[in-house]
Structure to design on (737 residues):
């Protein structure tokens, strides 16, 4: 060992005595990788394998029958992707999903920020009350929430129609079908999802707001900055990594929203005009794994592309 | 990083191979003891029949037990598909008759041509259980929709003898609060008789191609008459479905209620039950008749609902599962089904049907019944809910011809796709 590395022994004799195994910077760092192994294996099993399997499947015509009969599926190249984009209503579903995701994310982020700012201003008692009501909305299972909202907007017995009848002193709203018109279907849907989504954003922003140093805010106030200016130029820069995290999460969550859409479709509503990506996949034929995997791959690419810029910005900021 | 990638690939490969070998090792064992699991759907199967099946099977086969598990209709597509291809598969399962072909097509059921089964199965159900000329499931029971009414609400109104009279009576008795005919928009099983009675059809095979028939001449006539019912005779939600029809009926808001025969139990439930009925009021004089056809004295073709029983391909002991199926199709068991008011899948047991107006009406109605197209792709049509959608649009006053043509296009796309 000493013979192979004469220069090292010559220049740093003491180091050699301390770390006898060290051979310059080239030795494989076993310890950190050993520590990482459990998580790497877990990731490979839980995320890596399904992802690779999905990508492979999307190029085949695999069906349940292949598994049952033990036959290999046929490789069909890009047929599944071609079919999705040319022969089906997939492009419309994709556009609808993205539009819904943008609206939901904007509403939830803006609403969450306003509520967080409000909570900073409230007295302790009121803040507790607001926190508890937010937590209740957040803790409610989406399916239960959707069923309750579904009853409120029920055609025959819904409270929404009743209240509107009372307010307008007419019978115009009797038997009004909220879910029949796709536009009002999505209004109800957005109401449910936003109502349940805001608590998470509000709590995260509220925690982030606590990190903004009071001295800086006070200094800017002395310099004559107004409320909006302080928010835009002092608070927002401090919050930007929190906002990015919430935006990325909300983007992903809102693009793969399933329960609420599916449950509302079961109550009423025209399925073909209200499908979003996850319900669309679910309603494909039983066990048509090839096509559904192809839709999954497209969703994956979409989500990665949407998250890429945000994640990269966060990493850059952290590196500074 | 590179080494890490190789290691990850190795792990993936190992996992893939492990998955393959696990999948291939399902071998048949004829053990001396074991458990056979039977899945039934819903509460339809009477307790007497369940006990009979368990006792008979266990006494005929020493050391074997039989478990009956109750599933719901919501399970019958995806939960079933997942369970039936797993190594923990149930042995005998009940499926809806319209879904049987698609299960057989996916290889989830064993062919039954080597099993000694009765030869007098109900025709409609047997057709639905036959795929590529082979029987893949045993007809279990059939159910048909009949028209319920209560004499207290009907009053002096004369019972209709033709479909046109039925619609006319429904319109005449319709008020702001009372539906002459209760017809929610998404109830597509109840919409089919109008199409069929006028000579329309769902889809027929012409050579290799499926041709849908809602926009045929008869289909349009039927759907137009149905639109008349939706707009002039019914107060039901135009985008509502057929669940819980006993609620408006028990409120005295329905003259004619076309519903599956088992709805009689919902209506005749006590007022203080968890799902309250109206046993002491409108349930007390509940009566029923088969939906009349175009001419007096004939019935309209109704949808033959029902179930079949299949043996899972992945069953650990298919021989024993087939023995259980033989008990299920035996006269003793089918008679118990009949006594419970279900039209048995074996015709010889039909004589045991109870002598009630509801049972008689159902038997008459089922004598003229049809099923949905027998193709594995049909399950996809139901999954996409396109028929319900078209009906909701018709109920909302849409142009029948245009909606029917669009629907036919969608159905043909799926069936020929």
């Amino acid at each position: 060992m000493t013979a192979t590395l004469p220069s090292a022994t010559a220049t740093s004799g003491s180091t050699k005595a301390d770390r006898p195994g060290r051979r310059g910077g080239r030795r494989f760092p076993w310890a950190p990788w050993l520590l990482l192994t459990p998580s790497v294996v877990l990731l490979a099993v839980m995320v890596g394998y399904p992802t690779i399997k999905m990508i492979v499947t999307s190029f085949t015509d695999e069906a349940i029958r292949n598994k049952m009969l033990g036959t290999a599926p046929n490789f069909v190249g890009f047929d599944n992707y071609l079919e999705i984009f040319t022969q089906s209503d997939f492009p419309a579903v994709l556009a609808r999903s993205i539009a819904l995701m943008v609206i939901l994310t904007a509403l939830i982020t803006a609403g969450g920020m306003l509520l967080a700012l409000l909570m900073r201003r409230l007295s302790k008692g009121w803040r507790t009350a607001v926190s508890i009501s937010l937590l209740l909305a957040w803790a409610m299972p989406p399916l239960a929430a959707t069923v309750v909202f579904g009853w409120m907007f029920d055609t025959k017995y819904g409270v929404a129609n009743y209240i509107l009848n009372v307010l307008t002193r007419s019978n115009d709203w009797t038997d009004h079908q909220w879910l029949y018109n796709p536009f009002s279907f999505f209004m109800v849907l957005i109401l449910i999802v936003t109502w349940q989504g805001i608590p998470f954003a509000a709590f995260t922003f509220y925690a982030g707001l606590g990190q903004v140093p009071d001295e800086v805010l006070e200094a800017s106030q002395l310099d004559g900055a107004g409320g909006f200016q302080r928010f835009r130029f002092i608070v927002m820069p401090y919050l930007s990594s929190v906002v990015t995290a919430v935006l990325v999460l909300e983007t992903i969550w809102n693009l793969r929203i399933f329960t609420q859409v599916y449950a509302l479709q079961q109550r009423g509503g025209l399925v073909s005009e209200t499908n979003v990506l996850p319900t669309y996949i679910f309603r494909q034929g039983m066990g048509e794994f090839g096509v559904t995997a192809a839709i999954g791959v497209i969703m994956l690419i979409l989500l990665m592309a949407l998250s890429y810029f945000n994640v990269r910005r966060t990493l850059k900021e952290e590196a500074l | 990083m590179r080494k890490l990638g190789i290691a990850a690939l190795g792990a993936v490969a190992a996992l893939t191979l492990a998955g393959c070998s696990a999948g291939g090792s399902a071998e048949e064992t004829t053990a001396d003891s074991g458990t056979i699991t039977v899945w039934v759907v819903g509460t339809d199967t009477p307790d007497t029949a369940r006990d009979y099946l368990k006792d008979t099977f266990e006494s005929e086969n020493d050391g074997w037990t039989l478990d009956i598990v109750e599933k719901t209709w919501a399970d019958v597509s995806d939960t079933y598909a997942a369970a039936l291809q797993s190594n923990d598969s149930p042995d005998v399962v009940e499926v809806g008759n319209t879904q049987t072909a698609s299960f057989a097509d996916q290889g989830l059921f064993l062919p039954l041509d080597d099993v000694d089964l009765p030869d007098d199965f109900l025709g409609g159900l047997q057709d639905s259980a036959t795929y590529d000329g082979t029987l893949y499931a045993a007809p279990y029971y059939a159910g048909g929709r009949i028209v319920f009414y209560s004499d207290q609400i009907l009053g002096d109104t004369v019972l209709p003898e033709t479909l046109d009279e039925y619609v006319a009576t429904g319109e005449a008795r319709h008020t702001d609060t009372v539906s002459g005919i209760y017809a929610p928009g998404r109830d597509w099983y109840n919409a089919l008789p109008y199409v069929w009675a006028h000579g329309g059809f769902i889809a027929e095979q012409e050579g290799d191609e499926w041709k849908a028939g809602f926009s045929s001449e008869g289909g349009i006539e039927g759907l137009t008459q149905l639109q008349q019912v939706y707009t002039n005779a019914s107060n039901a939600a135009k985008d509502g479905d057929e669940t819980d029809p006993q609620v408006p009926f028990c409120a005295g808001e329905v003259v004619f209620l076309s519903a599956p025969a088992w709805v009689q139990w919902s209506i005749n439930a006590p007022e203080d039950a968890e799902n309250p009925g109206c046993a002491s009021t409108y349930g007390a004089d509940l009566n029923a008749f088969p939906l009349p056809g175009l001419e007096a004295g004939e019935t309209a073709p109704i949808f033959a609902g029902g179930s079949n029983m299949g043996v899972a391909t992945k069953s650990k002991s298919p021989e024993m599962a087939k023995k259980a199926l033989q008990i299920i199709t035996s006269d003793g068991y089918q008679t118990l089904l009949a006594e419970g008011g279900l039209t048995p899948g074996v015709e010889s047991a039909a004589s045991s049907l109870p002598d009630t107006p509801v049972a008689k009406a159902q038997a008459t109605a089922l004598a003229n019944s049809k099923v949905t197209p027998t193709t594995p792709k049909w399950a996809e049509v139901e999954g996409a809910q396109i028929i319900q959608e078209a009906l909701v649009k018709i109920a909302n006053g849409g142009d029948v011809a245009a909606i029917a043509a669009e629907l036919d296009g969608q159905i043909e796309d799926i069936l020929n796709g």
In short: The CA atoms of residues 205 and 243 of chain A lie 7 Å apart. DSSP finds 16 helices and no strands in chain A.
